[in-house]
């Protein structure tokens, strides 16, 4: 009787043979950063020795244990990240055919503040995969030097020089473009405009500013952009920054709030009796914004679709670990524009396409 060929092995067998983590093997096989060249060579040699096959690895993992994902998101801004968590939970409920999935949620104060400490306390390297909202890339870089790091997917923003497998976010440059385009249309005469961001060290926020300023220069050169302000997602900082802005520039024509943490700025505008006169573009949608859009005290809001971001992040990380499909390194969602005319589509604060896929 002819001898049957040896059964190919998967990622787990390679990791076991070398005494390293699945995440390290994954990085080596997909030529990603975050491991040494020596480790990469060891993995490739062992993969060849064990007759490694990606498809067989996927079939093996499908038949094994429950997958555990560590989810690390900021507490601020809750209206944004709570919607993102809801999208993740929906995805986890639906992803049951290939392998059971369990999500473990952890929170740190705000983007760029306490994320590394939170991950270390949670022993983040124990998880099969990690989803993280990245803050300051320089602070996070130490996490990616470890050979035992599991696959990490970034959400809400990106830091492409770090060794993440992929990122999911709204197209922040387009968000800034939209805000500038709209202000240029409703402010036909020369005027000053301003932008308040969260933290310009974060790629998502800096891309919004870049898109906003570039679009103003091309499509609305009659508008003068003031130096950008940052709230650092702190309500008091945002409120005080807005008060100073309104005192110093009483002829301000419009403002783009590039963060969902807009309520403190809107409170300052209300106290200065600017709501309804100042043309305001906000970010995302939540109950407090609805009456302001309905009564035209806010021009519109640029929705970042956090629910869909959360759902897609879990689906992509799951597909990557199981080898179900090729995962693109960058996924950028088109932002949704919320106006008085289409507000009913977003009244629950979720994404428009959430309604369509339920």
The Cα radius of gyration reads 23 Å
Helix count, per DSSP?
14
| Percent of residues in helices | 40-55%
Task: Determine the strand fraction and express it as a percent band.
Answer: 15-25%
Class based on secondary structure composition and strand pairing: alpha/beta
- Could you tell me how far the N terminus lies from the C terminus, measured between alpha carbons in angstroms? 54 Å
Low-confidence stretches: 1-7, 55-61, 354-358
Describe this structure in words.
The chain is of the alpha/beta class. It is 42% helix and 18% strand. The chain has 14 helices and 13 strands. It has helices at 11-18, 22-29, 37-49, 54-62, 78-94, 115-121, 137-140, 172-186, 203-219, 235-248, 263-271, 290-294, 306-322, 352-357; strands at residues 67-74, 101-108, 129-132, 152-155, 166-170, 191-197, 223-225, 229-230, 252-257, 279-283, 300-303, 330-333, 336-338. The strands form 2 sheets. Strands 6, 7, 8, 9, 10, 11 and 13 form a 7-stranded mixed β-sheet that branches. A 6-stranded parallel β-sheet has the order 2-1-3-4-5-12, sandwiched between helices. α5 (78-94) links the parallel β1 (67-74) and β2 (101-108). α1 (11-18) crosses α3 and α5 packs across α13 (306-322). The longest helix has 17 residues, at 78-94.
